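seq:
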Amino acid sequence: MSYVPPHIGSCEVLRHDGRVNTSPCPISTVLFDADGVLQFIGTPWPEALAARGGEEFARELLATEGTTLRGEVSLREFLQGLKNRLSLDQDVDFLMDAWWHATVDQDAWDMVRELRRFGVRTALATNQQVERKTWMEDELGYSELCDERFYSCDLGACKPEEQYFTLILHRLGVEPCSVLFVDDNLDNIAAASRCGIQTIHHPADAGADVLRQELSEWIPGLM
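struct:
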């Protein structure tokens, strides 16, 4: 049976900044990024990486990590290669420890559950390596949070690649305009918008109160 979205959205929703959301169809599904949206990351990621392996390590990793995010190579293997290439003294376990730091925003998680009670389908839409996906599922409990989970390492595509979003839309089987995507990265927001998805740019680690206000502009009654 195909999914039928509840009529809880509006074609025109007044935003707190005075602009109007003009989605042609009600919101059926909300896609949530993890880091910076549903979980606090604390230290900005480039700084956290530099603290582990130095600024050159951080720059090189951020420029070339796509193979790990698409699940083409393990994080451990990738870091070992980067360590060798940069002649780093730090061992791989020390470098990998940077990935095991995030604090769940329980109030944001409660809001996800609330959306599900509204009849809105919820989905995790996050860039993660296989190792960190496993950690998030087993240690943080993401396996029970959303209706759907779209990890980049499972899809074989990562944000901000448009293919990441087209694959999600295909699996959801809904119109792009009925999907709302929440992320703290403007490049990811732009890619989703190009695919016809509605978007919210959520400031990193802004917390659940800000998230609720943002979502309520698209889903009346959430406040």
